[in-house]
Design brief:
Dna Ligase, domain 1; 11 helices; 27% strand; Nucleotidyltransferase, domain 5; 366 residues; 3 domains; 5-stranded mixed sheet
Length: 366
């Protein structure tokens, strides 16, 4: 594997894995932090925080980052420092993630070779899949599985992951300027997999991460990512539909969406009627990801999980299930985790919104 700017990840080995660590999830419109420690075999959630910016609602170019907008260092640093101050975190060690839309992730097939030969072929193939010079990107690859073709040839499926070096350097600077020691970094899909590992089996599971300005879709089998892609159809897409149809501000539309959702009863039925066609577009993207996986692997997706802030939309699980034809599987990040009793009323929100930051912090102790 060619790691380049990923070399600093080995710093995690230089720390005694005790005390507390922070998982920092810098999204498109919010920053989420989980402060985690471990006692024996039990994880302890000692602190968490979420800080959201509303600027992106009226001014999309003021989002922290999007698929078309590189991360804004100044804004991200300010929000991160503000959240750390409000949380009064004890740890200065952090593990962070890069969102799927800021990376290059693809799956391809090739004949089975030795690891050294495979590395050479993968780096050659990477030039076809990564739309930028390889000296400007850090690449990592994994063998997903080995299989025989119809002709009896030995083949392997490769998961290729690339992060632009300038993105890596910006994340390092943001954390340094916020007073944190960044000891590891990874693409958010791997943090999601780690956070949910006790709820995943070899049964193909489609995880849909509905964020403010991006929706990520990954299909996993056990502890392995088999397919990943993203779309810009997301939570703000639904908010815009309400704002335009009801002629209200984006902030007011966002409030209505969160409070009413798809309740679909009485005076609220109009809101559901407005939202469903736009939610259908997101579902169509999810259905496409499902179809791509099923064609490539000749297997059926059997479970679907919804995470992210968009998963808190009232009524979304029932509608998603009816349209996709699969039962929504539930997860509880706090199952088996020690945490203050005061967090119980917001457990559902934590389950949906802290998945990435929890998975990041968990990495430190594994």
């Amino acid at each position: 594997m060619r790691l380049g700017a990923f070399d600093f990840i080995t710093d995690i080995q230089n720390f005694f894995k005790g005390g507390k660590v922070l998982g920092t999830d810098i999204g498109t419109a919010s920053i989420k932090i989980t402060e985690l420690s471990k006692r024996g075999e039990s994880f302890i959630l000692s602190n968490y925080g979420m800080l959201e910016t509303k600027k992106y609602l009226d001014y999309p170019n003021q989002a922290i980052q999007t698929s078309s907008l590189r991360i804004v260092e100044k804004d991200a640093t300010h929000l991160l420092k503000t959240l750390l101050s409000e949380m009064k975190t004890r740890s200065h060690l952090a593990i962070t993630s890069v969102p799927l839309f800021a990376t290059f992730v693809t799956v391809f097939e090739m004949p089975k070779f030795s690891r050294e030969e495979t590395n050479k072929v993968v780096m050659f193939q990477a030039q076809q899949y990564v739309p930028m010079p390889l000296d400007q990107i850090s690449v990592e690859w994994f063998v997903i599985e080995e299989f025989d073709t119809e002709r009896g040839q030995k083949y392997q499926r490769i998961l290729l992951v690339g992060i632009p070096n300038d993105v890596i350097m910006k994340y390092k600077k943001i954390h340094k300027d916020a007073g944190l020691r960044l000891v590891a970094m990874e693409v958010d899909i791997f943090a999601i997999l780690r956070a949910l590992d006790k709820f995943l089996t070899e049964v193909p599971t489609l995880i849909v991460d509905i964020g403010a300005q991006s929706t990520g879709m990954i299909v996993v089998e056990g502890k392995s990512v088999r397919h990943a892609n993203q779309t810009d159809y997301s939570g703000i897409y639904l908010t815009q539909a309400i704002a335009k149809s009801l002629d209200v501000s984006m902030i007011r539309a966002e409030e209505l969406k969160r409070r009413k959702g798809l309740s679909g009863e009485g005076v609220d039925s109009e809101l559901s009627t407005l939202l469903l066609p736009f939610l259908d577009v997101i579902i169509q993207e999810v259905r496409h990801a499902k179809d791509v996986y099923e064609r490539r692997y000749a297997k059926k997706v059997e479970k679907i999980m919804l995470i992210g802030g968009g998963a808190n939309l009232i009524g979304i699980e029932k509608y998603f299930s009816s349209q996709i034809g699969l039962t929504i599987a539930h997860q509880s990040l706090l199952m088996g985790v020690q945490y203050p009793e005061t967090l119980r009323p917001v457990e559902k929100n934590i389950d949906n919104e802290l998945v990435v930051s929890f998975g990041l912090a968990k990495r430190y102790f594994l």
